[in-house]
Write a structure and sequence with these properties.
Length: about 110
């Protein structure tokens, strides 16, 4: 038998699929942060976790870390892309943004 096809103590091998490994898992109420969730094994991991009800933070991580969005401000993102048809005049209101920022500081920095 080929070495990578040999099952280990877990009952899985290098040939096992993500669906096989996660069969029977209920991920409802769980949140996962998967780095590299937009390609390769990261996208497969994210896909299978989502099948089991796990919520993710892919878009949050993308906006925080990806060089493609460096300098982008005032946009809404969904599924690692700028969301379309979602902005209102309130979303672009700089005075409202300033008030929200000050309110957030008051909440997180008690005197």
């Amino acid at each position: 038998m080929w070495i990578f096809g040999r099952k280990g103590a877990s009952g899985f091998s290098a040939c096992s699929t993500a669906e096989e490994v996660t069969q029977g898992i209920d991920g409802a109420g769980l949140t996962a942060i998967v780095t590299g969730a937009t390609s390769g094994i990261g996208i497969e991991t994210t896909r299978v976790l989502a099948l089991h009800g796990v919520h993710g933070a892919s878009t949050t991580c993308y906006v925080a870390l990806h060089p493609k969005v460096k300098g982008v401000s005032g946009e809404y993102f969904s599924d690692n892309n700028i969301a379309t048809n979602t902005t209102t005049s309130l979303a672009k209101d700089s005075e409202l943004a300033k008030k929200l920022w000050e309110f957030s500081l008051d909440l997180t920095n008690p005197k």
